[in-house]
Specification:
0% helix, 239 residues, Immunoglobulin-like, 17 strands, 6-stranded antiparallel beta sheet, mainly beta, rod-shaped
């Protein structure tokens, strides 16, 4: 079978080819005995484009993409663009990508439920027609979550109380503020965030080399500002 995509033909996808057959014998070729047929050069589907991921509706990860050219005239005529789409996805759990069960669809959208244990999703879409698969389109989506809990330390001096905490992982959305709560003697927590506004927070970056660093935040609150709790000498403070 001749490969029409190579020399001397060097045809490309969607080119039309006209063939003619003449019957010949020792006396020559009969010009009236001619057969003619038209057909189109066919190949696998093109690569999916426009793949986008979103968190919509709530609690879902949705993939959308554009229709591809089926690149042949004998693929499933009921499929969009003459092609079907194979969707596979992976979830990152504990820093490891875990492959999940995929699906085949004729639609241009696909939705999967979010998993609270997953931090990221990787979705791959390939178009397929009767000639085979097209190229791979991949997108990764990391849903925004509430920040991790900071680690806080409390140190009291004669005049003030210093609260120190690290900058935790923001999980995809910038940290806007810190809420600081003080535990009273009855065990309840009361917010003292107003005593430690952003302007009074000192942030220091500690570099440990090899690209590793962390940020420490601190705020000093005068003991006089904590008078409503009526602390006495030797009392402990928990934040």
């Amino acid at each position: 079978m001749a490969d029409l995509m190579k020399s001397p033909f060097s045809l490309t996808t969607n080119d039309f080819v006209q063939a003619r057959a003449d019957a010949c014998n020792s006396q020559g070729c009969g010009v009236t005995a001619t057969a003619q047929s038209d057909f189109r050069v066919e190949s696998e589907a093109t690569t999916v484009t426009g793949l986008k991921l979103s968190e919509f509706p709530a609690g879902k990860i949705t993939a959308n993409w554009q229709s591809v050219d089926g690149n042949n005239n004998f693929a499933n005529n009921n499929a969009i663009g003459g092609a079907t789409y194979t969707v596979t996805y992976e979830k990152m759990i504990g820093g490891i990508w875990q492959t999940q069960t995929g699906t085949t669809t004729q639609s241009l959208t696909w939705t999967v439920d979010q998993d609270n244990s997953a931090t990221s999703y990787k979705i791959t879409v390939r178009a397929r027609n009767a000639c085979g698969f097209g190229g791979i389109a991949t997108q990764i989506w990391t849903p925004a979550r509430a920040p991790d809990a900071p680690q806080i330390q409390v140190a009291a001096s004669c005049q003030s109380v210093r609260f120190t905490w690290n900058t935790p992982n923001s999980n995809g959305t910038p940290i806007q503020r810190y809420e600081i709560n003080l535990q009273t003697k009855n065990g309840a927590y009361t917010s003292i965030t107003n005593l430690c506004p952003a302007a009074n927070v000192n942030t220091q970056t500690n570099n440990f080399g090899n690209g590793f660093n962390n940020q420490q935040n601190s705020c000093d609150i005068p003991l006089s500002s904590l008078g409503q709790w009526a602390f006495a000498a030797g009392d402990g403070i928990q934040a």
